[in-house]
Design a protein that fits this description.
- The protein is built from seven helices and ten strands.
- Strands 1-10-9-6-2-3-5 form a seven-stranded parallel beta sheet.
- The protein is 30% helix and 20% strand.
- It has a single domain (2-236), classed as Rossmann fold (3-Layer(aba) Sandwich).
- Helix 1 packs across helix 2 and helix 2 packs parallel to helix 3 (82-91).
- It is of the alpha/beta class.
Length: 241
């Protein structure tokens, strides 16, 4: 595990953008494509805007395939739909072709949406191992990541797939990568900033006795890939080591 701590969010985002470009360049050089999984919520929006402007000419974006690691059970035109934020912040500005974008069809029932999304991913990989080049993750102050929330059934799912999960605290369904699917990735990066995340960061990174039912981000441990945490000093300020 690599732990990177930055004095400011701006420095963090700039270094993370460079990291993404480097992984993208390597993937394209090796196999002529870059499979990149975006995280949702508000935290990455500024990062995506940077990639689609300042970093627009630093990567051959026509060879990038975009996915989302989880989705809210709202229609695609809803302001909370992760895919809509991605389209607005990075996909449309970079003129990404429709066949390079993989989003969750939330016009379907959650279970069906998860099945169809998993099928589309498998089809893209054409029978190869479902190992994304980079999965970008955020983390909530309850230590959830993607839609792996504390105490939910999806935490028990051992399949390398996409699953629907009902989140009691939100009284709604989500569609999400399972932890085993995330852990197949070649690179996984957490983007976490702000004082509100400090306690969760401490438990996830430093607890000797892991309790992923309470702190789901503890499940993230790539099998053959790298795990990097991009933190600002506020999010990291309770870490002892």
């Amino acid at each position: 595990m690599n732990l990177l701590i930055y004095k400011t969010k701006e420095e963090l985002l700039e270094d993370l953008a460079d990291y993404i470009i480097k992984i993208g360049e390597t993937a394209i050089a090796e196999k002529d494509c870059f499979n990149f999984v975006l995280t949702g919520g508000n935290s990455p929006k500024e990062l995506y805007q940077m990639l689609s402007t300042t970093y627009k000419d630093k990567l051959d974006w026509s060879k990038v395939y975009f996915f989302v690691g989880d989705e809210r059970n709202v229609l695609p035109d809803h302001e909370s739909y992760n895919g809509l934020m991605a389209k607005t912040a990075i996909l449309d500005p970079l003129n990404i072709a429709a066949d390079h974008i993989f989003l969750v069809d939330t016009t379907l029932a959650p279970e069906k949406a998860a099945i169809e999304y998993a099928k589309s991913i498998s089809s893209h990989f054409e029978g190869a191992d479902l190992a994304f080049d980079l999965i970008l993750l955020g983390m909530g102050d309850d230590a959830h990541t993607a839609s792996l929330f504390p105490g939910t059934e999806i935490l028990k799912n051992k399949e390398v797939t996409v699953d629907a999960v009902f989140v009691d605290k939100l009284s709604t369904y989500r569609i999400s990568f399972t932890a085993p699917l995330i852990n197949k990735a070649k690179n996984v990066a957490f983007l976490v900033f702000g004082q509100g995340k400090a306690e969760a960061v401490k438990h996830v990174i430093e607890d000797e006795n892991k309790n992923p039912q309470l702190y789901p981000s503890q499940l993230i441990a790539p099998i053959d890939g790298s795990l990097t945490w991009f933190l600002d000093t506020e999010a990291a300020n309770l870490l002892e080591n």
